[in-house]
Amino acid sequence: MESAPSYRDANRARLRDSLVDAARELTVRHGWGRVRMADVAKAAGVSRQTVYNEFDGRDGLAQALAAREIERFTVAVRERLREHGADVRAAAHAAILHTLTEADQNPLVRSILAGAPDELLPFLTTRSDLLLSAAGAVIDEWAAASLPDADPAVVALAGESIVRLTVSHVVRPSADTATAASALAEVFVRLLR
Q1: For a FRET experiment, which of 61, 113, 149, 152 has its CA 20 to 30 Å from that of 17?
Q2: pLDDT in tens, 70-114
Q3: Ramachandran class of 87: left when φ > 0, alpha when ψ lies in -120 to 50, beta otherwise
Q4: Superfamily of domain 7-192
C-alpha cells in the first residue's frame, strides 16, 4: 500500500504546478522566447532562485510545461478510446478528432506553433520522445483492454505511426479537422490489420 505524500512533497508538487501554470500563461501571452525565469518567479510569487532550484533552467521548465500539456491531451485521448472499446474506427476517430480540435483551440499549442522553431516546437517534432511515449502507452493500454488478440508489436507500430501523423497534421494541417480525423482513423484501422 502506498503511503500518502508527505507535507513537504505535497507542497513541492503545488509549487511546481504553480510555476508551470505561470510559465504556461506567460507563454500564451508572450511566446516562449520572451519568457524569463524571473517573470515566472514573479508571476508565481517566488524567487528566481526557487524556479532554478525546481527546474535547473529554462530547458527543465520547458520539459515540465510540455509534460503537463501532453498529460492533459493523453487523459482526454484515453477517455475517448475507452468510450468506444473494441470499435477501432470509432475509438480512433474520437481520439484523433478530439486531439486535432483541442490542438487547434489550445492557446499554448497555438503559441508554440506561432513561435520560433527552436523554442517549444521541438517537443512536437525533433524532441517528441515524451509525446510518443505517453501517447503510445495510452494506445497500448486501450488495445490490451479492448483488443486482447491484437499483436502488441503491430499495436505499437500502428500507435506510433498514427501519433506521428496526427502531430504532423497539428503542425501543418492539410485538410479540415473532421476530414483529417476520418482519414487518420482509417489509416489506423488499416495499420492494425
Answers
A1: 113
A2: 999 999 999 999 999 999 999 999 999 999 999 999 999 999 988
A3: beta
A4: Tetracycline Repressor, domain 2 (1.10.357.10)
36 C-beta neighbours (distance < 10 Å), count: 13
Where in the chain are the domains? Answer: 7-192
Q: What is the pTM of this model?
A: 0.89
Query: For residue 126, with 0-12 CB atoms within 10 Å meaning exposed, 13-18 middle and 19 or more buried, which class applies?
Result: exposed
Q: At 79, phi and psi to the nearest 5?
A: -60, -45
Helix 152-171 × helix 107-114 angle, to 10°: 70
Residue corresponding to grid cell 508489436: 153
Question: Rounded to whole angstroms, how far apart are CA atoms 13 and 154?
Answer: 37
